[in-house]
Design a protein that fits this description.
140 residues, three-stranded antiparallel sheet, 5 strands, globular, two-stranded parallel sheet
């Protein structure tokens, strides 16, 4: 079920008309912590590079270790915002080991939106972040 949802999410990034905008802010540990064998890591990181370089609606920023503690350290989350014309309020999607939650409360969403802003300010821009990913590929 989760795999199908993630595949569908990828499809809407490449649809010809009005592809969704997607920004990922990832921790540098994602680049360096081996998950699987080296070729798998190279392929996964290479896929990120390919997607970012081929789709102007997709960007990635990497939060380097050097920033120290930050608001994203409590775990991953997805802030979902909709175009104004849809009149839908933003929400936050959280996924744990055994459960997933959706937060729609205004205060909750605002706290996560603030965290996204903070993380974007801490992380190098997309170009430098892409360079970090390419360097990590060489390490694997």
């Amino acid at each position: 079920m989760i795999a199908a949802i993630r595949t569908r999410r990828q499809d809407v990034l490449s649809r010809p008309e009005s592809p969704l905008k997607f920004t990922a802010i990832i921790n540098e540990a994602v680049l360096l912590r081996p998950v699987g064998r080296r070729p798998v890591m190279r392929d996964q990181l290479g896929h990120i590079v390919d997607v970012v370089e081929s789709r102007p609606n997709v960007r990635v920023q990497v939060v380097p270790f050097s920033v120290g503690a930050h608001s994203g350290m409590d775990g991953s989350f997805v802030l979902i915002q909709f175009p104004e014309k849809l009149s839908l309020k933003p929400m936050v999607y959280l996924e744990g080991l055994v459960d997933a939650w959706v937060k729609r409360g205004e205060r909750d969403v605002e706290r996560y939106a603030d965290a996204v802003s903070d993380l974007q300010a801490l992380a190098p821009g997309p170009r430098e972040s892409l360079h970090m990913i390419k360097e990590a590929i060489k390490e694997h």
